[in-house]
Structure formats: C-alpha cells, structure tokens
C-alpha cells in the first residue's frame, strides 16, 4: 500500500464530522512522518555517527527478524529493516473509554482493520484533549503510551528509538508480537488479535533463547514479568466482580453506591497483597488511574492466552499448523470463535495449575461487597 493511498481514508463515506475528520488527519500525518524519516538499517549500521549501543541493538534486532522469518514462519520481508529516531518516549498514545456502569469498551471502527476499544494519537496533547472530550460526555478514560504499533503489513514498519534499546527478551517479544499481527488478523476482535500476538511474542522469545542455550536468561525475564502477571490476574478478578455489580437491575443512584463500595473493596485487596502485586510498582496507577477504561485496556491483551497455548500444544509446536488453526478461528463468526476459545481455555485450566504469584492472591471475598452487602451509605 503506497503512502498516497492513505488519503483515500478521508474520502470514505461516514467520516463526516470535525472530530472524526481530525482524528484521521492526525493519523495520516503521523504515519506519513514516520515513513518519511525511515533510514535503511544498512545505512545506519555503516554510519560512523551511529553510537555503539544503537548499532549493537540494531544488529540484535536484525538477527531476531531473521529468526522470526525462518524459525517462527512470520512475514517479515522489509518490515523493521529501517530505523527512525524519534524525539519522544512513545510513538502513539492510546485513549481507552468506558461508560461509568459498563465494562463494554467504547469501540471505534476503522477502515480495513475493523473495530478496537481505543483510538491512537501520534501527539500526546491531542490524545489528552480527546480524553477530555470523552470525559465531558461522562465517559471514563485511560491514556496509555505505546512504544510500538503494527500497520498489519500495509507498510514496511521501521524499528523505532522508542523500543530498540529494550533488553533482548523484551525486544524479541515485542518484534514477534507485532509481526504476528501481520500473519493473522480478525476484524472487530481485539482480544483475539492481541492474545494471539502476545502468545507468539512470548513463545517466540522462549524459542529464541533456547536456540542459543540461554534459557536461563529467558527464565530470568519471565521471573521479572511475574509481578505484572500477578497484577493482571488481580485486575481480571476485579473486572469480573464489577461486571456482576453492573449487571444488577438497580437505578443509577444505587448503582453509584454499589460501584463505590466495590472499588473500595478492590483497593483494600490491592493493599493487602501489595508486595505480591509489584511491591508498589502500581501504586500510582491504583491511586489515580484505576477505572473502567483501564480495566478495558487490560482485558484486551491477554484474555485468550491460555487458549492459544493449548492450540499450540495440540499441533505439537508446529508453527505452520498453528497458524492454520488460528486462521481457521479467525474465519469463524465472533460467537463461534468465542465458544471455541472458551473451550480451549478450560482445557488449559484443567491440565495444569497456574504457576504465577497470582495463585497466592485471594480477592474472591471482595465480590460480596458489591452484591450481597448493603451498599455503602
């Protein structure tokens, strides 16, 4: 897809309205700037002005891409074969939104890629303003910086300074994740797409380190990830409890009290398990940004990881057969796909216990605070 074809987005029917038009204009301009600044990796590596650290990391990235193409059977071609130096920490800021008493995401739909529970902005100020507009409509919002994104193979995505200096395991997981988006994509199903790519990223990283007899490094990385996995499991519990609360047939005034009571219970559970949940790493988030929109953002990235692990095991680790099975799922209706993923997830739960620190966290008791107990007065 050529850069000039970006402009057809502005001509699509249904894109009237200043806000929608403004969103697409900034998206097109931001993508164009990224593509304009690309420098081929060969030139960057040969440039004497390139610092040693960057050169070393770009070489690692090159090796990872070769591994992804040959061993993981991911579509690489010219993707990530160029580099862009940005003057910011993130390339995009995603805005998530949710209603006060509903955890169904405020979905936005786009040409080609389908619907997603967020909108991405290349400028942080624009993202903040978009969040403020949503808040004026009584929506809850969550703003998250994104170091990398995928154009699903429509463009030759470059390596970016926002992530290229990451530790090797993180870089491997990220690149394999983004490349996976170009292999399988189900329109209008963010949970499926992100869970699939996350599985490919994690399993691909494991195989990368196993290939060079460095599984100890991968295991150390996995250990560092345990706090996040424990926190995510805690968030999933909180989300499940709140979904039950929001399903109650009560008026807004009573629902507001039930929600406040439920959130107090969630905060109490976090405080009681703080050491297991990152030992303070997530204090600021819990105190200032933990809301329905944040819950939406977490849920979309790992809902079906267990299902894909079972699917990979069923094909005995054959990547080609695995992608065929995932393609088959992507081709089904959302309802049929969800049923199959739920079945696979249940198999995972029955086959092995979760070995994460989240097993030690019991927040089941906080469910009663939003349902059976008298709402706080």
What does this protein look like?
- The protein is built from 14 helices and 8 strands.
- The chain is 55% helix and 8% strand.
- A 3-stranded mixed β-sheet has the order 1-2-8. Strands 6-3-7 form a 3-stranded antiparallel β-sheet. Strands 4-5 form a two-stranded antiparallel ribbon.
- The protein folds into 2 domains: 11-215, no CATH class; 224-370, no CATH class.
- Helix 6 packs antiparallel against helix 7 and helix 6 crosses helix 10 (292-302).
- The chain starts with 17 loop residues before the first helix and ends in a 7-residue tail after the last helix.
- It has 377 residues and is mainly alpha-helical.
Mean pLDDT: 84
Major beta sheet summary: 3 strands, mixed
- Name the shape in a single word: globular
Count of structural domains: 2
The string of secondary-structure elements, in order, is HEHHEEEEEHEEHHHHHHHHHH
Number of helices: 14
User: What's the count of strands?
Assistant: 8
Distance between the termini: 58 Å
What proportion of the residues is helical, as a percent range? 40-55%
Q: What radius of gyration results from the CA coordinates?
A: 22 Å
Strand content: 5-15%
The low-pLDDT segments are 1-17, 354-359, 367-377
Secondary-structure-derived class? mainly alpha
Order of strands across the main sheet: 1-2-8
């Amino acid at each position: 897809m050529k850069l000039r074809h970006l402009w057809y987005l502005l001509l699509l029917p249904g894109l009237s309205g200043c806000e929608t038009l403004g969103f697409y204009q900034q998206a097109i301009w931001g993508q164009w700037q990224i593509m304009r600044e690309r420098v081929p990796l060969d030139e960057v590596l040969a440039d004497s002005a390139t610092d040693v650290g960057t050169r070393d990391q770009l070489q690692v990235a090159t090796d990872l891409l070769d591994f992804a193409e040959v061993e993981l059977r991911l579509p690489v071609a010219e993707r990530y074969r160029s580099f862009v130096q940005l003057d910011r920490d993130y390339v995009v800021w995603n805005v998530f939104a949710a209603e006060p008493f509903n955890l169904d995401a405020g979905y936005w739909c786009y040409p080609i890629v389908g619907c997603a529970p967020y909108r991405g902005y290349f400028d942080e100020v624009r993202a903040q303003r978009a969040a403020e507009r949503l808040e004026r409509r009584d929506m809850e919002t969550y703003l998250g910086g994104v170091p990398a994104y995928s154009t699903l193979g429509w463009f030759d995505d470059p390596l970016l300074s926002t992530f290229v200096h990451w530790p090797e395991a993180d870089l491997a997981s990220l690149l394999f994740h983004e490349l996976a988006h170009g292999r399988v994509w189900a329109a209008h199903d963010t949970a499926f797409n992100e869970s699939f790519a996350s599985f490919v990223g994690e399993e691909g990283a494991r195989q990368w380190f196993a290939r060079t007899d460095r599984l100890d490094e991968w295991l150390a990385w996995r250990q560092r990830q345990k706090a996040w996995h424990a926190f995510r499991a805690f968030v999933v519990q909180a989300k499940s409890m709140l979904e039950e609360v929001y399903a109650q047939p009560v008026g807004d005034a009573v629902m507001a009290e039930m929600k406040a009571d439920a959130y107090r219970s969630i905060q109490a559970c976090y405080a009681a398990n703080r050491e297991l949940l990152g030992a303070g790493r997530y204090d600021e988030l819990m105190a200032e940004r933990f809301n329905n929109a944040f819950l939406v953002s977490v849920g979309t990235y790992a809902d079906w990881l267990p299902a894909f692990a079972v699917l990979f095991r069923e094909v005995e680790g054959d990547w080609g057969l695995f992608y065929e099975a995932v393609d088959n799922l992507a081709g089904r209706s959302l309802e049929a796909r969800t049923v199959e993923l739920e079945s696979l997830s249940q198999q995972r739960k029955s086959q092995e216990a979760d070995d994460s620190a989240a097993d030690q966290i019991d927040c089941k008791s906080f469910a009663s605070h939003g349902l059976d107990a008298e709402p706080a007065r």
